[in-house]
Structure formats: structure tokens, C-alpha cells
Specification:
The chain is mainly alpha-helical. It contains 17 helices and no strands. Helices cover 71% and strands 0% of the residues.
Length: 289
């Protein structure tokens, strides 16, 4: 009986996967599937997509509050929960205070994640906080992740942060990881002020030594600031080998910069993917159109 049940489970999973390829879910179904996933960060990403398009916020809030009640101090996950619940407007001041305490405590295991999250949430550093972050990014003995994520946080030194972030793309020590951190940080900046930053982004977009998903992040910034056309980006994408991360980033470009009918057709194709994160990216894009 146990062997039969196991075989049935495998067959059922295969059939469900095949169904995704043949009859894709609706965008709403794809996002709800992610919200109920066993993977914590998949649930976070689903929640963020849903919040952005105004979908079932009460359900998301209840789910993350229940998870918080069950595991209030779970390292790493607590930062993700704060990120979602702050975006829902739940106890924002207290949650921002908790994130701040994690981010500025050198002994916090999830310090890097808290710093990254403050940057993503658009928090601005002032006074002693700003001095601390500047000291971190200028400390070449510090962890590279912490250094680059510290520059995601807005402060009064925009040009210095921009120079630092773009330097990650030409870092000879760890070019891949620091380029990722640098380019994503530039995307979070309110405004690019240096023409050389665009030169570096063009270099990243056109350089096959970088990952294709990163090249498309650079292309997205160039599209946003009208330094690249959608046709240029499409040509770039068509010449790439395409893993799910690359396709997920392409969903963002389709959503914001492609002709609507073309974007709708391409995003609908991605809803057939067997990869849940890609399905969610496509679903979010379709609901944003």
C-alpha cells in the first residue's frame, strides 16, 4: 500500500507539472500557488508580487503574522517577514526599528539581509547611521556583501554611492558577485548622476562574461533612463542562452517596456513554465500590464 501511494504521488506530480506546460494557471492562481509554497522565500516573493498588484493583502498579512507568531526570532526569515509586513503597513515603525537593530548590530547573523532590506524599502540613513554605513563600504577588510548592500541605502552622498556601486562591475577580486550587488544597487538609486555609470551599464549589458540575468538588469536601467530601446534589449535577449533567472528578469522588461500585446503574449507563455518563480514573475507582469 505504501509503495502504491508513493507511485501515485510521483505520477500525480508529473501530471500536474505537465498540466502547467499545457494549461497554464491564471496569474492569480500562479501567485497563490507561490504564497502556499513550502519555500519561505518563494512565499515572500509571491507576497511582494501580490502586494504590488493589490491582490489579497489580508490573506498575506494573516499568513505572515501566523508565521511570525510561530517563529518570532527565526534568523533570516524574520527579516523577510518584516519586509512583507512593512509593505502591508503592519506596525511599520516598530518593524523598521527592529530591522535597524539587526542591521546595525555587528553580531547579528542576518545583518547583511537586514541592510539589504532597508535599501529595498527605501529607508534613508542620516547622522551616525550614515557615518557607520560610509565606514562599512570604505572598509576593504569587511564582507563584500555588507559593503555593497550598505550602498543600497539612501544617504546624502549619492555620487559617492553611485561611484562605489558601479565599481563593483569592474572589481577584479570578485567581479561576478560584486557586479550583481553593484548593478542592483544602482537600480535602487533614485537618480543616476554620472554619465560614466551608463557607460559601465552598457559594458555589462553587452559583455558575455557576466550572467545573462545581470546583463538584463543593466539593460532595464538603461531602458528606464532612455539609454537603450526595447528593440536593442530584444536583440540582446534573443542572442542569449536562457535559464529561468534570465527569463524572470526578461519578464520585468516585457512588463515595463515592451508593446502591450507582445508583452501579454510572451508573459502568457512563461505561465506554462515548470519553475514556480518564473510563473510568478510572468503572473505579476500580466497583472501589471
Amino acid at each position: 500500500m505504501k509503495m502504491t501511494a508513493t507511485i501515485f504521488s510521483v505520477v500525480a506530480a508529473a501530471l500536474l507539472s505537465g498540466c502547467c506546460m499545457i494549461c497554464p494557471p491564471t496569474p492569480q492562481e500562479a501567485l497563490h500557488e507561490g504564497l502556499k509554497s513550502e519555500g519561505f522565500w518563494t512565499r515572500v516573493h509571491a507576497a511582494e508580487h501580490m502586494i504590488d498588484v493589490g491582490l489579497d493583502k489580508k490573506e498575506i498579512e494573516a499568513l505572515f503574522l501566523a508565521d511570525e507568531k510561530a517563529n518570532p526570532e527565526e534568523t533570516f526569515c524574520r527579516v523577510g517577514r518584516h519586509r512583507v509586513l512593512i509593505r502591508l503597513g503592519n506596525n511599520v515603525d516598530d518593524r523598521m526599528k527592529q530591522l535597524h537593530e539587526i542591521a546595525f548590530n555587528a553580531d547579528s547573523e542576518d545583518r547583511i539581509h537586514a541592510v539589504e532590506t532597508l535599501g529595498k524599502l527605501g529607508w534613508t540613513a542620516t547622522g551616525e547611521d550614515e557615518k557607520t554605513l560610509i565606514a562599512i563600504r570604505n572598509d576593504r577588510t569587511a564582507d563584500d556583501g555588507l559593503r555593497y548592500f550598505s550602498a543600497w541605502i539612501d544617504d546624502t552622498k549619492d555620487m559617492e554611492r553611485e561611484l562605489f556601486l558601479s565599481s563593483g562591475c569592474i572589481d577584479s577580486k570578485k567581479p561576478h558577485y560584486n557586479a550583481i550587488r553593484g548593478v542592483h544597487g544602482i537600480r535602487f538609486m533614485k537618480q543616476i548622476t554620472l554619465e560614466q555609470t551608463y557607460v559601465i551599464l552598457q559594458m555589462v549589458a553587452n559583455n558575455e562574461s557576466y550572467s545573462n540575468s545581470l546583463r538584463l538588469v543593466a539593460a532595464e536601467i538603461l531602458l528606464r533612463d532612455k539609454k537603450m530601446t526595447f528593440d536593442d534589449a530584444l536583440k540582446l535577449y534573443n542572442e542569449m542562452s536562457k535559464d529561468n533567472g534570465t527569463k524572470g528578469q526578461w519578464c520585468r522588461i516585457l512588463t515595463f517596456y515592451a508593446p502591450k500585446l507582445y508583452a501579454e503574449a510572451e508573459l502568457t507563455k512563461f505561465l506554462k513554465s515548470s519553475d514556480i518563480e518564473l510563473r510568478m514573475s510572468a503572473a505579476w507582469g500580466l497583472l501589471k500590464l
